[in-house]
Amino acid sequence: MSVAKDHDYQNDPSLSEKWKFRFAFYDKNGLPAFWGVTPAWREAYKTMTFGQKIKVSFNFFAYFFSVIYLLILGLWKKSILILLLNVVVAVIIAATDLRFLAFIVNIYTATRANIWYYELKTKGIQTWSL
């Protein structure tokens, strides 16, 4: 799936208002990195309601249906990586009985799915990195 750089997502009928809200927030305040966020992002996040904070920082579909949901969004590279990561975690759980690890991959996927989709739709970026 090839997407032109700087795609006009506001006029894209395939995107819901929820996605447009997320994308506008990311355009204005930048993307959160794995280890932290920019000061502008942090300040804008503080002014949001609880529902808006959840909307831009967590994706429930990605939490519950991680691999399938990423495939539906067109993020097939990320989907393959998440599937492989789930297999590795399953092996670790079987070997060590650390069952809480089962939630870690899904939580990570839920917090990054919005950003990955933003990068795909607006910049045409889909890499093999998580």
Q: Would you write up a description of this structure?
A:
This protein is mainly alpha-helical. It has 2 domains: 14-57, no CATH class; 58-125, no CATH class. It contains 7 helices and no strands. It has helices spanning 17-29, 39-46, 50-57, 60-64, 66-73, 76-96, 101-123. The longest helix has 23 residues, at 101-123. It is globular and about 50 Å long. The model has no long low-confidence stretch (mean pLDDT 90).
Short descriptors:
single chain; 130 residues; mainly alpha; 2 domains; globular
Low-confidence segments: none
Tally of individual helices? 7
**Helix content bin:** 55-70%
Beta content comes to: under 5%
Question: What is the overall pLDDT average?
Answer: 90
**What is the CA–CA distance across the termini?**
19 Å
- Mind describing the biggest β-sheet? none
User: Could you tell me the radius of gyration in angstroms?
Assistant: 16 Å
Which geometry do the CA atoms define? globular
Helix- and strand-based class? mainly alpha
Count of domains: 2
Please count the beta strands (DSSP E, at least 2 residues each).
0
* Secondary-structure element string: HHHHHHH
